[in-house]
């Protein structure tokens, strides 16, 4: 969900996990001139066609082939991670990751932050976007697209996703994610 805390959590996890890097879907938006406009005059940013998804897949695959060469990898594992010194972790964060089929074979874990309508709209209203949200944009485009993609995800029975309540504190979410990731890494190491 937009404004659910994805980027903040990813950045905090990067500081806690060994050899960790982040790729953000926000870095793959097309320029405004290439983004379609609907019949209401809304720029359609909350759809896959507004993003260079093939470039994102290429960047992720490149990182997977050579994680140690990435500029963004942190190298200071916490003591709890000492047995994971030779493990590299890539966090990919974004709002349309699981609805793009070429990415689905790449994930070890999937997390999906949710927010109720009122909280999401409140948070969105505090952010400044370029281009700026036009009046009615949240209700006319952003929220309907979130519901559409969330429904598609929920209907895909083969997709294993951990749904997280974005109204919980950052500390609570971070604690859960960190523990879950460490457990997953330990399983992969066995």
From TrEMBL:
<comment type="similarity">
    <text>Belongs to the uridine kinase family. NRK subfamily.</text>
</comment>
<keyword id="KW-0418">Kinase</keyword>
<keyword id="KW-0547">Nucleotide-binding</keyword>
<comment type="pathway">
    <text>Cofactor biosynthesis; NAD(+) biosynthesis.</text>
</comment>
<keyword id="KW-0662">Pyridine nucleotide biosynthesis</keyword>
<protein>
    <submittedName>
        <fullName>NRK1 kinase</fullName>
    </submittedName>
</protein>
<keyword id="KW-0067">ATP-binding</keyword>
<dbReference type="GO" id="GO:0019363">
    <property type="term" value="P:pyridine nucleotide biosynthetic process"/>
</dbReference>
<keyword id="KW-0808">Transferase</keyword>
<dbReference type="GO" id="GO:0061769">
    <property type="term" value="F:nicotinate riboside kinase activity"/>
</dbReference>
<dbReference type="GO" id="GO:0005829">
    <property type="term" value="C:cytosol"/>
</dbReference>
<dbReference type="InterPro" id="IPR027417">
    <property type="entry name" value="P-loop_NTPase"/>
</dbReference>
<dbReference type="GO" id="GO:0046872">
    <property type="term" value="F:metal ion binding"/>
</dbReference>
<keyword id="KW-0460">Magnesium</keyword>
<dbReference type="Pfam" id="PF13238">
    <property type="entry name" value="AAA_18"/>
</dbReference>
<dbReference type="GO" id="GO:0019674">
    <property type="term" value="P:NAD+ metabolic process"/>
</dbReference>
<keyword id="KW-0479">Metal-binding</keyword>
<dbReference type="GO" id="GO:0005524">
    <property type="term" value="F:ATP binding"/>
</dbReference>
<dbReference type="GO" id="GO:0050262">
    <property type="term" value="F:ribosylnicotinamide kinase activity"/>
</dbReference>
């Amino acid at each position: 969900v937009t404004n659910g805390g994805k980027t903040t959590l990813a950045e905090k996890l990067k500081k806690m996990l060994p050899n960790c890097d982040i790729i953000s879907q926000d870095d793959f938006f097309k320029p405004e001139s290439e983004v379609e406009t609907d019949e209401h005059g809304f720029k359609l940013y909350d759809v896959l066609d507004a993003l260079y998804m093939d470039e994102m897949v290429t960047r992720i695959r490149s990182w997977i082939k050579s994680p140690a060469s990435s500029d963004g990898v942190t190298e200071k594992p916490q003591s709890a991670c000492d047995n994971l010194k030779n493990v590299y972790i890539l966090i990919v964060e974004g709002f349309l990751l699981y609805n793009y089929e070429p990415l689905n074979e790449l994930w070890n874990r999937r997390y999906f932050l949710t927010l109720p309508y009122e909280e999401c709209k409140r948070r969105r209203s505090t952010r400044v976007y370029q281009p700026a949200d036009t009046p009615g944009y949240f209700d006319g485009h952003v929220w309907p697209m979130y519901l559409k993609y969330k429904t598609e995800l929920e209907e895909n029975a083969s997709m294993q996703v951990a749904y997280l309540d974005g109204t919980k504190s950052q500390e609570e979410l971070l604690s859960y994610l960190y523990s879950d990731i460490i457990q997953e890494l330990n399983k992969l190491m066995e």
